[in-house]
Amino acid sequence: MRVLSRIGVSLPLILVSRIADPHFWNTFDFFSTVSGKTLKGGYIVVIQTHGRNGQYNPHLHIIATSGGWDEQAQKWVHLGYLPYPMLHKKWQWHALEMVRET
Questions:
Q1: Cα-based torsion angle of the residue sequence 70, 15, 4, 57 in order, rounded to the nearest 10 degrees
Q2: Residue 102 domain-assigned (yes or no)
Q3: What is the pTM (predicted TM-score) of this model?
């Protein structure tokens, strides 16, 4: 998330706790939008504060499941196609909402 490196040093510290909060990921409804069902996806989020050259460059590495848990059907739903443009726009919207609330 390059926005973080342009905004300033203190912003990542504020956002770290927000991004690490499971509630944030519960509201990130990408898998539900793609599938048309209420799905709870899985995510691993790592916040890295520097680049290869050692300069301060906060950014996120996110590993996500390729589907989600359907609580109502009590089963895992695999999604064969995840539209990256939609993922990008949803992530951007949620991240900017977080910045606005901070």
A1: -100
A2: no
A3: 0.65
